[in-house]
Amino acid sequence: MGALNLRVAKTRALVGRTGFPWRSAAVPNGVEPPPPPARLRADYPTDWARRYPARVVRAALVETVMKPVMWVVASPTRRGTDRLNCIDGPVIFAANHHSHADTPLLLTSIPDPWRHRLVVGAAADYFFATRIGGAMAALAIGAIPIERTRVGRKSADLTRQLIGDGWSLLIFPEGGRSPDGWGQPFRGGAAYLAIRCGVPVVPVHIDGTGLILRKGRLLPRPSRTTITFGDPLLPTEGEHARRFAARLEAAVASLADETATDWWNARQRAHAGTSPGLTGPDIGAWRRIWALDGGNRRDRRRGHNWPDL
Question: Do 291 and 267 belong together in one domain?
Fold first, then answer.
């Protein structure tokens, strides 16, 4: 027993001196050390973008640039803001995602007191792949890096810290823009963060931005949009992230139904569990576009029957 204790003591001393296995080995003498890894993607630092000077710049961009542009390009109609009156404190806004226009439209549509104390969960591999792109995203929209496939520990800890400091989060649970106009299944990131942070999630449905700047299009085309805010949701006791994500997706689907029809009929279908899904039919891409749009209206006026693919 004494020999075993001695070996344990020597091992602990060795770990204390070398840092093994948490610290890499020292570079031998005469060998040039490698450059430190670039802090990009999920490791990109964004705390500077939440300091007062950056917040002033971002508020000016939102109020003097984004809002007029969205007014001209998107002609937004906002519904359901009265459903936010019962909320006191930070929340997570979870919305469907069809276009790059979704973020500025929501940044100019989310009411105070959340609008100017809001961070946007942005794909780490897309917005933070370079230092310049990451700096622009962090400054202009208050973006923080979130991994698409899963919520990493660093992203989760950062989000929890920000929500604890009074910041709210805007996130797109689909993980990316729609490729064909239909929604994509919700991932569990927003639900997981809500469960971990203990804050309500506000479901949001955006309609019309796919016509403005859909995936693959470079120049915007004006269209009318509707932003509908839903009732805040809280996870039930013992509810795991996957089930809460499914409930959140159903809430956004009900808001889409409300936008397309009316509140009463949408409520009845939501209660019966028969709201039309966001993801559309499981068929070929061209048929999905056809089923969604029925052909471009301008082309139909000209006598063409094929949708704009």
Answer: no
Number of H helices, E strands in the chain: 13, 7
| SS3 sequence of 181-204 | CCCCCCCCHHHHHHHHHCCCEEEE
| Gap between the Cα atoms of 148 and 181, Å rounded | 20
* Domain of residue 98, CATH code: 3.40.1130.10
- pLDDT tens string 7-22: 655 555 554 554 445 5
Q: Give Cα separations from 46 to 4, 107, 253 (angstroms).
A: 48, 18, 33
pLDDT of residue 22: 53
> pTM of the prediction?
0.79
CA atoms of 226 and 250, how far apart (whole Å): 18
From residue 136, how far is each of 22, 61, 148, 250 by CA, in Å?
Answer: 33, 12, 20, 34
Q: Looking at residue 203, what is its pLDDT? A: 96
Identify the domain containing residue 297 by its residue range.
283-309
Q: Can you tell me the distance from the alpha carbon of 83 to that of 229, in angstroms, rounded to the nearest whole number? A: 7
Largest CA distance in the chain: 93
At 75-100, the pLDDT tens digits run 999 999 999 998 989 999 999 988 88
77 contacts 186 by C-beta, under 8 angstroms: no
Whether residue 291 sits in one domain with residue 182: no
Cβ(275)–Cβ(250) below 8 Å:
yes
